[in-house]
What we know:
Elements: H1 2-15, H2 33-36, H3 38-58, H4 62-77, H5 80-94, H6 98-106, H7 112-129, H8 134-141, H9 143-157, H10 166-173, H11 176-197, H12 199-224, H13 229-252
Amino acid sequence: MRAWWNSFKIAFSMYSKIPMPKADWEKENMRYMMCFFPFIGVVEGACMFLWSKVAAWLQAGDVMRSCVYVLIPVLVTGGIHLDGLLDTADALSSYQPRERKLEILKDSHAGAFAVITACCYFLAAIGVWSEITGEQVLVLAGSYVLSRCFSGLAVATFPCAKRSGTVAMFSDAAQKKCVMVSMYLLMALSALYMCLTDMKLGVAAILGAILSFGAYYRISMKQFGGITGDLAGFFLQICELIIAIAVYLAGKL
C-alpha cells in the first residue's frame, strides 16, 4: 500500500505543480507511478469545467475565455509537456541523423523552430478554444485523462530510444502489466464519460486520440528509434490539440 501512495506522490510531483508530500525517488516507489498519471488529467478537466462556469457568469469574451482554457493545462502541469513539444520541434526540424536528433532533445536551449512552434501552437489552440461551446467543454474535460492513458500505454509498450532518461527510468521501474490494465480501464472510463455526454463529440475525440497515437508511434520509431520524455510531452500536447479540433469539427457537422 505504501508503494502505491509513494507512486501517487511521485506522479503528481513529476507531472504537475500540485503540492505533494515528499517521496523518495526510488525504483520501488516508482513501480506504479504511471497508473496515477491520468489522474492529473482529472484535475485539468475539473479546472476546465469550473472555468467554463466562471466565464459564463462573468460573461467573458471569446479571447479571454479561450486564453484561460489554453493556459490552464500549462498552469496545472508547469509546462513540462510543452517543453517536450518544443524540444521535439527543434529535433525534427534539424533533419539530422537519429543520434544528433537525440542530442538536440537533451539540449536545454530553445532553437528558432521551438519558438516558431510555440507561437503556432498557442495561436491554433486559442483559435480552436474560442469556438468551443459549453457542451463541448464537458466532453473535452475527459480528453485530458484519455490523452494521458495513451501516453502511459506508450511508456509501458513502446521501446525507449535511450537507456537513460525519464521515460527509460519509469519504464524500467514500472509494473508494466499493472500499468497497462490501469491505462485500459481509465481509457474506457474516460471514453464512456465523453460518449455519454455526447455520442458524436465523444467518438470524434476518441478518433482524434487514436490518430494521434498512431502518428506518435510512427514518428518516434522512424525518427528516434523509440520514445523519450520529450517525445511523450510532444505527443500529449499534439494529442490534446487534435482532440479539441476533432470535437470542434464534429460539432459543425
